[in-house]
Amino acid sequence: MYLNKNISHDTLKAMTLEEKNELCKEIRSFLVKSVRNTGGHLSPNLGVVEMTVALHSVFETPLDKLVFDVGHQAYVHKMLTGRLGRFGTLRKQGGISGFPRPDESEHDAFIAGHSSISISAAAGIAKAMKLSGDNHHAVAIIGDGAFTGGIAFEGLNNAGKIDANLIIVLNDNGMSISKNKSAFAMYLAHIRSSRKYLKTKRSVKNIISKTPLIGKGIDRSLSRIKHIFKEIIYKSNLFESFGINYIGPVDGHNMHELIRAFEAARMINKPSIVHVYTKKGKGYLPAEQNPGEYHGITSVKTAVKSKDTFSDVMGKTLAELGTKDKSICAITAAMKYGTGLQHFCAEHRDRYFDGGIAEQHCVTFAGGLAQQGMKPVFAVYSTFLQRGFDQMIHDISIHPLHVVFAIDRAGFVGEDGATHQGIFDVSVLGAIPNMAIYSPSNYCELRNTLNRALYEEKGPACVRYPKGREEWSVNEKYTPDFRFKSGDNQLVVTYGRIAANLTEIYKSTGKSTLQLIKINPIPKEVIQICANYENIYLFEEGIENGGVSSKIAVELLKLGYKGNVSITAVNDFVKTGTVEQQLELHGLSKNKMLEKIIGIPQGIAMNE
Ligand SMILES: Cc1ncc(C[n+]2csc(CCOP(=O)(O)OP(=O)(O)O)c2C)c(N)n1
Description:
This protein is an alpha/beta fold. The protein has a seven-stranded mixed β-sheet with strand order 7-6-8-9-11-10-15, with helices on both faces. A six-stranded mixed β-sheet has the order 12-14-13-16-17-18, sandwiched between helices. A five-stranded parallel β-sheet has the order 1-2-3-5-4, sandwiched between helices. Strand 6 (about 330), helix 15 (about 340-345) and strand 7 form a beta-alpha-beta unit. Helix 16 packs parallel to helix 18 (about 390-395). Bound molecules: thiamine diphosphate (TPP).
């Protein structure tokens, strides 16, 4: 048994190739067993087993810095850096994170979760080390999917000139979550095939001897020769044009080749890229055959099949609307299945666009479509839309253009931890003039508000909805801006997923309740209703600063309100746990809400 808790750079360095290969087998079976139990990212990690063992054999963390991109493929790295024994707690409250966290281990060089940042981060780290006389290396480990994010190219554009010990390891498996169909992926495939072609010594002469003298065949052969000559004579590809030394392509499951390539990159004191090709899901047949489905899996214990989620309802509704209205277009940033857009794609292929991990492009592309009279809907997770903030201001709202944002995973998302929570969209987007925001709490409201966003709104409009399934339902043709139920002289106000608790709160406490559905701009009548109450309890599954609660409080202050306002909202980054645990921890579960309401009002007292 080579896989054990004490494994380290020194033990790895001392192992023979055969021993390392044996270790890789053990890591694979551990990964499959462990991740099937806890849930998490399986196929990305199975694909990088040899690569990670080779990296830790050549580089010594924490002196050398490994910067994982997205970070969902860092499980093997975690096993090799003292966390093997904690894998049963992966993605659980108080357990180890599914992403790199420097506060978890000194071997994790940089926080990750959102894609495409590793080259810029590693470049900064490498330069800082150089400036302080440290000769160790910073290594960015980035996938071909993550490379479709604009910031990866911004990093590349600067990496060549930083004069520091920077290495980029490009993990090219031809997959993002789904198949990577970007032009960049095609470019990588071209490098792979032409370099491999050269390696197998089927030379230019060889091609010439087989070239037919007439017809299309001669054209094809000549263009192949041109490419190969270019590579032989100029030894140039995109990366070398950026001033970065290119090594590869390297077979990512061949330990010997990997170690040689990483050693070579380490010797060159100049920014280098090692192009490694791997198989996503390697070694576990179901994941190899279906790497997209095994990208991230739920625990075997909690896996539930069937029954639609909010994402499905959005995707199916949009597909139906798209049949009647040929101006509707749907856009995703590499999250076709996560956002439910597979339904739209199946029926309206010509109006479906996957921009890759390129949220900024997707927002502005939607702006272009809208400018020409189309009705674009960009379906995107709340956390990833953060990337497109300036585009939403500059390219959409100033015009203003009628673009609809279907914001999935709004609110707590559970196990992915601090980097993925959808808690900022309301505060951030609510600050932009002309921005309409709806926050439905069940499927019927979602369908109706999507309709309103498409057909009532004239400018940018967001419909934000939570991860998972509805907790309550209504049956109505039209969803109003808010629902108010008069009870006693205290008022409870909320919106989104936790509005499902209002029925129970009304029943068991007799309090008046108000569910907001249009949360931006806040309807004037809502402020007028609030002003009539001496005690108001505001609950918000989002960041307090700039949120709906703060806005209501400010509007009331402007009216000279003298009552008590209690705000329960999120005030910090959210720790890993289940959604239920996160709601409980932040005082937003049904019980915690009841506890707050039945006790003495706390929070901002504005009566003195
Ligand atoms: C900004 C951003 N958008 C979307 C995602 C969701 N996401 C996580 S992993 C992934 C695919 C990454 O592909 P690649 O870098 O090739 O890694 P692989 O899983 O294939 O190893 C996507 C789209 C993200 N993490 N960050």
